[in-house]
Write a structure and sequence with these properties.
0% strand, globular, 7 helices, 68% helix, mainly alpha
Length: 174
């Protein structure tokens, strides 16, 4: 596939489709209710995005799923930006309605705030950004993440605690 063989890319999808759907379901479950993007569409968009890249250089399964998680994150952020755009009602004030009233989609500000915080994390601490992509977005365990990054499990546990505290502080102040 890295040599441009499109048939290899087509052969890959059936082998990993269920794992990608589970990853998409996990990502969508963490978002506020009212999302219009379904897990199947997210998988297809992410797959096209990562397979379309020239020579992705995946060393193993972990790198592929980290790239898939990153692509899904980018798609969800793009969708949140579209929803927040003025022409889509981004300038309108949202109000809470009772249970018997019509439902309104929750604001996408949370997705964008988290994305901006993660970009700052990536700029300041590139490896910690890899840890969050592997642990949170790809769903890997501490052990799997440590193996992918060639560090100890203790290092991953320490960095995970730091990342959570850092994000909490950033989101509180942002």
């Amino acid at each position: 596939m890295s040599r441009g063989d499109r048939e290899a890319a087509a052969d890959l999808l059936p082998l990993i489709y269920d794992a990608l759907r589970e990853l998409a379901r996990t990502k969508l479950a963490k978002l506020p209710p009212g999302q219009t993007l379904q897990s199947t569409a997210l998988v297809h968009e992410a797959y096209l995005k990562i397979v379309g890249r020239v020579d992705p250089g995946w060393d193993h399964r972990g790198h592929f799923f980290a790239a898939a998680a990153q692509a899904m994150r980018e798609i969800l952020v793009d969708q949140a930006r579209r929803k927040a755009a003025f022409k889509h009602g981004g300038g309108a004030k949202r109000i809470d309605l009772g249970a018997d009233e019509a439902a309104i989609e929750p604001p996408s500000d949370d997705v964008l705030a988290v994305h901006e915080a993660l970009q700052r994390l990536e700029n300041e601490y590139p490896r910690k950004s890899q840890v969050i992509n592997l642990r949170y977005f790809s769903g890997f365990t501490n052990e799997e993440t440590a193996a992918i990054l060639s560090v100890s499990v203790g290092t991953i546990e320490r960095e995970w605690r730091y990342i959570r505290a850092w994000l909490k502080k950033e989101l509180r102040h942002g």
